[in-house]
Design a protein that fits this description.
The chain has one helix at about 1-20, and strands at about 35-45, 55-65, 70-85, 90-95, 105-110, 125, 130-135, 140-145, 150. By secondary structure, the protein is mainly beta. It has a single domain (about 30-150), classed as Aromatic compound dioxygenase (Protocatechuate 3,4-Dioxygenase, subunit A, Sandwich).
């Protein structure tokens, strides 16, 4: 009876070790396409003064490829990031994007009225997307950035 008890413990230990030895780390075969993305710039008025509190909406457009590998768009925005300018009129965004950004629109809007020096007209720009780092031929598409310094007109 005592031998059976020891044999069961030994067998249990052996099976446990076998289970742990089969848990080796293997590289992932599946993932999600992603890229590093950053947007930055400065917002000023017509006299060159920095404007604080301007809402900055960074929008990345979604593109699809058809069977001929021609890119076409569906007119839908899939990633929107909203931030506000600081006391120096600067905005900065750094994030991981779902896919390589090809078209980006940045919308600037005065949401606080006269609180930060006046009321300003809204403005929308589409800066050039620059690739700053190549992808690694896997799910990582590289690094991309946009930059836009804008001047807002008084209302």
């Amino acid at each position: 009876m005592n031998i059976r008890k020891h044999l069961l413990r030994l067998l249990g230990s052996a099976l446990t070790m076998l289970g742990f030895s089969s848990c080796i780390l293997v590289p992932a075969m599946y993932g999600s396409p992603h890229a590093d993305f950053s947007a930055s710039g400065t917002v000023t008025d017509t006299q060159g003064n920095a404007i604080e509190g301007i809402r900055v909406a960074v929008q990345q457009h979604r593109h699809y490829a058809n069977s001929d590998d021609v890119i076409y768009d569906q007119n839908d925005w899939y990633e929107n990031d909203t931030l506000f300018t600081n006391a120096q009129g600067q905005y900065s965004l750094t994030r991981s994007a779902f896919a390589k950004p090809t078209d980006v629109t940045i919308v600037f809007e005065d949401v606080d009225g006269p609180a930060n020096g006046g009321e300003y007209e809204s403005l929308s720009v589409s800066p050039e997307v620059v690739q700053t780092k190549k992808g690694d031929r896997s799910w990582y598409g590289g690094a991309f950035e946009v930059s836009a310094d804008v001047t807002l007109e008084n209302k």
